[in-house]
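#data-curation
PF: Archiving a pair of folding outputs for the training set. Convention for this channel: one message per protein, sequence first, structure tokens after, nothing in between. First:
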Amino acid sequence: MGKWGANLGLLIVALTWGTVIPTVNYLLPVWDPFFLGSVRYVAGAPLLIMLVWLLEGFREASPRISWWRPFLLGTIGLGFFAPLYTVGVAHANPIVAAVLSAAGPVIAGVVAWLSFREPMDRRVVPAIILAVSGCILATVDFSQLRSAHSVFVIRGGELLILAAAACWSWYSIAAQRWLTGWSQLRISASTTIGGAPMLMAVYFMAGQVGWAQVPPAPPPDGWHLALLCWLTFVSIVLCLILWNYGVRHLGVVVATVYLNLVPIVSLAILAIMGVKPSLVQILGATLVIFGILYSEFLQYRYRRRRRRAVPV
């Protein structure tokens, strides 16, 4: 599949994760954010284990890697990320939460530089600027500029979302460095298992202080159960494998550029529900898509020049 498959996989990831914020907000009246943050990964872990067994068997992984690596990756990348992100979404304006997802490439670049001293690819910078600008246009109500109300409604969860993005960026980079030689399926399964203890601990500790309902309420109907399964088995199991595959072939910064489609998908869902996008929002969506295509064009041209420069 190579780079074309990686791009297609990341597109599927972005489209799927675009449904997460609207779905989480829809489910919050029934289930608390700590439960929603933990159940998505804990429930998906058995399916990932089964897939590893069916496709690769339980033979010893090659190469051999110390047990603490997938455990630490899962603890920080999933065990910290999931509750931070879900609680952040629960305590932030959904539109502002979508805007913050546009900061993913910037956060990924900073984390890569701070943690692994990876230089920022200057060919990606124009795409980041275009994508972030497009998301701002698509998700900010500029009619509030002349009023006494703030354009961004700050509720306190915004910092948690940014912290979650930093955890996810570190996990995305470190997983490909620390687990080199493992399949993306094995990486996804092992790190999910590694993060499960932290996710369960956070959920039960939140229940002890009254922030979470333990045990959770039963689903009121089949629709709520279906949405919960969507969050678990599609947005986590499938997308985690596709995400790790995309990061390995394209790099974390390019991969996170795709996440700028997330707020656009959220707006599309709102449009289906009767909230029609404005002209400014359509312009924002155009900028996001153009930013991704422009980034790929610059990198394709760079790779083509390098191939031509190599003597036969």
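PF: Second:
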Amino acid sequence: MKKYIPLALRILITIILIQTLRFKFTAHPDSLYIFEKVGLEPVGRITIGILELLAGILLLVPKTVWVGATLTLGIIGGAILMHLTQIGIEVKNDGGVLFITAVITFILSTITLFFYRKDIPFIKKN
């Protein structure tokens, strides 16, 4: 059972990352609003979408889980920072769902990176 928890976390993070891509890649009005507000529309929206897709793929490949988790931390850390400084916790009356999802994803990615820390090549192994 214990060995399935890291896999479940990886799949959950990937689902969260992938499900947001339809909004970014189809230029959904909510996505446009967010990226215009932070001055990253359209290049930032597409670039972040591609990076999220890449992170999701990397999380599913056993040898690159640590890379995917690290990339996710960077992307989602940026999203959290943008929420706290420019966008706000609540976006277009969503009740804070986007922000809460970002925080949950950040926490899950941190836990995943902890589980796979032994795979990071430049970390000294004890």
